[in-house]
């Protein structure tokens, strides 16, 4: 890394001098939000906050920093994520950043200095306006750079600004081993990479020695193992990678089936009692789990599919057809595999390269892991995303407008900053650095589209919604290329432009033509289309004169962590997840709220304040709009979300992607969610329609298709529907169901026990806890009030239920975690020195049982300590006893009893139930809908993540499973 970094620095200095010398004059920077003579920081109210982030599963503190400074309008979640993820310096030292001012200054001042150094600004005054406008936009959450900028810019470490990388590999062992190394270095830095393996000869071709080649699928094993090892070596997320194979590669069928076979292996191991859940101890034995796979199809194959024709698979060395296959049968296998395990996705090669601005320098063969960045091999892209809700203006009469002019000015500002960053950026390999500096690929995008559409009264799956999304995307990309042409006049076109000028101009004309024929729908999108049309006219005029500074301008990324930083309700191009959200409160605690966009939508649709209030109350209670008082059924679709009873149809997602795609340089990170009942034919149709509608890439996810995803807890109303779905499933995906039943272990006639008298809030009672002679708690009896009373009867019933559960193998710590902190009367002071306060009778009972029967480590993780341990913590800072004080024999006797083999298998195989207490919006939706989301648990804080494009993001701490 040191040699690469120094080499990059030398190359950067050389390139920087050339562009600076070429500059004839700099940019004049226009004010958008700021006031002359006043710094943006002086226009907001600042306050100090304490950030303490815990793992809710075990109560441990993941991160703590007190007294951080943020504007008063920043949410708790945004403050937590920025403080824990982006502040630099060791926690607890003077070097640690403690204010948003320091973070923004570190980045913005670096950009200004580089802009001045490389000749971007006409004067120091323009540089100052640039700095202030950039700081304002970041401070007010108008946009955000991608995470590597916040991690690295302005620090002493390499100034890596890119989140997306594309590598290449040739048909040689030296290149393949180089691929392993380059990918590993990118993973080590927390980023992801993609590549196409189609240059590697197939297993059906010969080596020069006469033997058969290994084939790309074989080499994928080594790369997958490397990615898994690097993850387990300290990263808090799985490695993000994309592997692509062309549809005409002779090993394409083996590539399609790789994950299907591994999924069958997972099921077999799960049924044998192994822990095969996401993050489970035994999942690492399964291969190919660290990558997204995609098949790259071309128009020749898709037309053969349409016509039911044969399609030739070609040798890599000679390009001759070595085997012919039925195109429809191969496409069917692709859909069957996606049905069974969500992989592979599909990429449309001819469409991708039809929109390629630099074809003379090489074809586009691959994408980054989330599929939005598609350009030359050995290149990278730095991202930034705008918060669309910041440009929606409501006047006093309820009239809404999208501020197209201000949006365009912010786009110009952001594109300028993104291009400046390439001047000082470092890159993980020399080849990537050279290509990126030569083509200067940028990836501006947006977040909060779903919220914007709902707030403006547009259904996500509607012509009006698609028109507004298309208009905004067109204006964004047109303005970006306009500014790119203006930058070319100041600091020069990208190095590869002269060779690709005709192709670049052709693609600009394609964008402009698509803008001209796009459908205008209403008073919101029509002015935006007009502004976009004007920008594309400027692009064609200025591009012809100046060329372009950037080969690529725009993509639609997942916006996971940065979306949370900007307090966005929705990520990227996604619709809203649900109408009711989980919100953290200043000072601790949380609450469920109806999305702020709902009242805006109702107002836009013409409802009166009292009607809005009644509808919002209905949503708060039921989680949906069905049968809401006064709401017209015709307006239900405006409030459709990604999940729930009124979920948006899969084709609704595809049509939205098609509305935005013609106006993007790159592609769209998005997974099309499908219900568990979806058939192979429906997936086949979606992959086909994606091609017909002009998408560049597409991936689907059928609910519950993966073993690692907890199965739906929602009861099926029609058993016949399940049987039908099973009939329609491909034979390869049918599994043998093995049912294990727990065995009850009764206590012996003579049993040791403890009887405890207690008082909670003035209410007296007795608890008798009996245990197995050497194997933990097995029985509880509770005595309160007079025999025959309602309370006594309920306590008897509760005791029997808990006792039977213990004897069937339910761990005591499960009961403790569920019943502690339950609040109801009587509550208050107790007469137990170890449990001085109790929120209810059951809260006290299970705290007492934890102290009597659980090992120290187990109950400490649950936050339950004796009076002696709490005093020790005050004296020494630790709850743990000294070595000589540990009661080893007592710990052994109080350990939870081991399950018999069939019970152990059941404990691992059974799906986890939907949570009873929500810790974020995803879990809240699970409780409301009675189902489990298809997201993994966050490695950092243990909460359920939610989808962000084709990746996942944790609302609790901001961790992502891919680009951000």
UniProtKB/TrEMBL annotation:
Annotated catalysed reactions: a 2'-deoxyribonucleoside 5'-diphosphate + [thioredoxin]-disulfide + H2O = a ribonucleoside 5'-diphosphate + [thioredoxin]-dithiol
Domain TSCPD intervals: 751-851
Family matches, as InterPro entries: RdRp_reductase_class-2, RNR_2_N, RNR_lg_C, RNR_NrdJ/NrdZ, TSCPD_dom
Domain of life: Bacteria
Residues covered by region (Disordered): 1-35, 895-919
Biased composition (Basic and acidic residues): 19-33
Residues in Ribonucleotide reductase class II vitamin B12-dependent N-terminal domain copies: 51-141
Chain ranges of the Ribonucleotide reductase large subunit C-terminal domain: 162-701
Enzyme Commission number(s) from the entry: 1.17.4.1
Cofactor: adenosylcob(III)alamin
Primary enzyme class: oxidoreductase
Keywords on record: Cobalamin, Cobalt, Disulfide bond, DNA synthesis, Nucleotide-binding, Oxidoreductase
Low complexity: compositionally biased ranges: 901-918
Family, per entry: Belongs to the ribonucleoside diphosphate reductase class-2 family.
NCBIfam families for this protein: NrdJ_Z, PRK06556.1
Name of protein: Vitamin B12-dependent ribonucleotide reductase
Organism: Streptantibioticus parmotrematis
């Amino acid at each position: 890394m040191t040699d690469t970094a120094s080499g990059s620095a030398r190359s950067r200095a050389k390139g920087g001098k050339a562009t600076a010398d070429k500059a004839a004059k700099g940019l004049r920077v226009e004010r958008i939000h700021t006031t002359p003579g006043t710094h943006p920081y002086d226009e907001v109210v600042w306050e100090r906050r304490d950030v303490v982030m815990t793992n809710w599963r075990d109560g441990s503190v993941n991160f703590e920093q007190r007294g951080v400074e943020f504007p008063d309008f920043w949410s708790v979640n945004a403050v937590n994520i920025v403080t824990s993820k982006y502040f630099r310096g060791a926690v607890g030292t003077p070097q640690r950043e403690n204010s948003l001012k320091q973070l923004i200054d570190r980045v913005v001042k670096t950009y200004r200095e580089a802009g001045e150094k490389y000749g971007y600004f006409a004067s120091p005054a323009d540089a100052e306006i640039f700095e202030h406008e950039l700081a304002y936009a970041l401070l007010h959450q108008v946009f955000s750079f991608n995470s590597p900028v916040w991690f690295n810019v302005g620090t002493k470490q390499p100034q890596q600004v890119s989140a997306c990388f594309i590598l290449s590999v040739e048909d040689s062992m030296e290149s393949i081993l180089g691929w392993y190394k380059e990918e590993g270095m990118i993973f080590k830095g927390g980023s992801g990479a993609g590549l196409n393996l189609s240059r590697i000869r197939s297993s059906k071709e010969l080596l020069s020695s006469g033997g058969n080649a290994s084939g790309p699928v074989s080499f994928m094993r080594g790369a997958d193992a490397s990615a898994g090892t690097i993850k387990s070596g300290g990263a808090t997320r799985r490695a993000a990678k994309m592997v692509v194979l062309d549809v005409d590669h002779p090993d394409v069928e083996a590539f399609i089936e790789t994950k299907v076979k591994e999924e069958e292996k997972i099921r077999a191991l799960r049924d044998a009692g192994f822990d095969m859940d996401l993050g489970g101890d035994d999942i690492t034995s399964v291969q190919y789990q660290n990558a997204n796979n995609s098949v790259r199809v071309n128009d020749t194959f898709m037309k053969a599919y349409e016509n039911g024709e044969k399609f030739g698979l070609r040798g890599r060395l000679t390009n001759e057809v070595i085997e012919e296959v039925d195109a429809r049968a191969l496409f069917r296998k692709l859909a069957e595999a996606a049905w069974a395990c969500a992989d592979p996705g599909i990429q449309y090669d001819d469409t991708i390269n039809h929109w390629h601005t630099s074809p003379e320098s090489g074809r586009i063969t691959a994408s980054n892991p989330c599929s939005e960045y598609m350009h030359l091999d050995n290149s990278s892209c730095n991202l930034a995303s705008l918060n669309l809700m910041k440009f929606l203006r409501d006047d006093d009469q309820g009239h809404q407008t999208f501020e197209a002019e201000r949006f365009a000015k912010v786009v110009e500002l952001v594109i300028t900053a993104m291009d400046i960053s390439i001047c000082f950026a470092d890159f993980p390999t020399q080849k990537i650095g050279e290509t990126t500096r030569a083509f200067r690929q940028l990836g501006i995008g947006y977040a909060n589209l779903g919220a914007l559409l709902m707030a403006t009264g547009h259904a996500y799956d509607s012509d009006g919604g698609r028109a507004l999304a298309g208009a905004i995307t067109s204006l964004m990309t047109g303005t970006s290329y306009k500014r790119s042409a203006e930058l070319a006049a100041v600091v020069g076109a990208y190095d590869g432009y002269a060779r690709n000028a005709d192709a670049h101009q052709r693609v600009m004309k394609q964008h402009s033509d698509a803008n001209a024929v796009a459908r205008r729908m209403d008073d919101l999108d029509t002015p935006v289309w007009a502004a976009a049309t004007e920008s594309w006219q400027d692009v064609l005029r200025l591009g012809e004169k100046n060329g372009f500074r950037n080969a690529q301008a725009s993509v639609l990324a997942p916006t996971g962590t940065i979306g949370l930083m900007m307090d966005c309700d929705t990520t990227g191009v996604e619709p809203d997840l649900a109408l009711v959200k989980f919100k953290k409160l200043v000072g601790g605690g949380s609450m469920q709220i109806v999305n702020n966009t709902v009242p805006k939508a109702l107002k836009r649709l013409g409802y009166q304040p009292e009607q809005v209030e009644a509808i919002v109350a209905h949503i708060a209670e039921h989680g949906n709009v069905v049968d809401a008082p006064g709401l017209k059924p015709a307006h239900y679709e405006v409030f459709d979300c990604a999940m729930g009873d009124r979920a948006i149809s899969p084709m609704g997602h595809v049509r939205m992607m098609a509305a935005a795609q013609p106006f993007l340089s790159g592609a769209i990170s998005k997974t099309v969610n499908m219900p568990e009942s979806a058939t192979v034919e429906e997936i086949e149709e979606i992959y086909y329609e994606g091609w017909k509608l002009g998408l560049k890439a597409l991936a689907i996810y059928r609910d519950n298709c993966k073993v690692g995803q907890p199965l739906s807890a929602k009861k099926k109303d029609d058993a016949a529907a399940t049987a039908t779905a099973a009939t329609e499933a491909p034979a390869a995906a049918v599994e043998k169901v093995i049912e294990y039943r727990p065995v009850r272990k009764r206590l012996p006639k003579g049993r040791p026990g403890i009887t405890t008298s207690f008082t909670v809030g003035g209410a007296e009672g007795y608890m008798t806890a009996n245990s197995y002679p050497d194997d933990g708690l097995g029985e509880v009896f509770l005595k309160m009030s007079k025999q025959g009373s309602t309370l006594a009867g309920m306590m008897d019933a509760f005791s029997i239920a808990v006792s039977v559960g213990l004897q069937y193998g339910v761990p005591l710590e499960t009961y403790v975690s569920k019943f502690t902190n339950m609040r109801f009367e009587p509550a208050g002071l107790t007469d137990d020195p170890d449990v001085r306060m109790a929120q209810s009778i059951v809260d006290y009972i299970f705290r007492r049982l934890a102290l009597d029967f659980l090992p120290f480590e187990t109950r400490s993780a649950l936050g339950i300590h004796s009076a002696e341990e709490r005093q020790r913590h005050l004296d020494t800072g630790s709850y743990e006893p000294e070595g000589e004080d540990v009661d080893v024999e007592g710990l052994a006797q109080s350990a939870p009893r081991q399950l018999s083999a069939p019970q152990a298998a059941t404990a691992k195989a059974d799906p986890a139930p939907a949570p009873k207490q929500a810790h974020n919006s995803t879990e809240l939706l699970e409780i409301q809908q009675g189902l489990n989301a298809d997201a993994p648990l966050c490695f950092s804080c243990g909460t359920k993540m939610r989808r962000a494009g084709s990746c996942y993001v944790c609302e609790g701490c901001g961790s992502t499973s891919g680009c951000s």
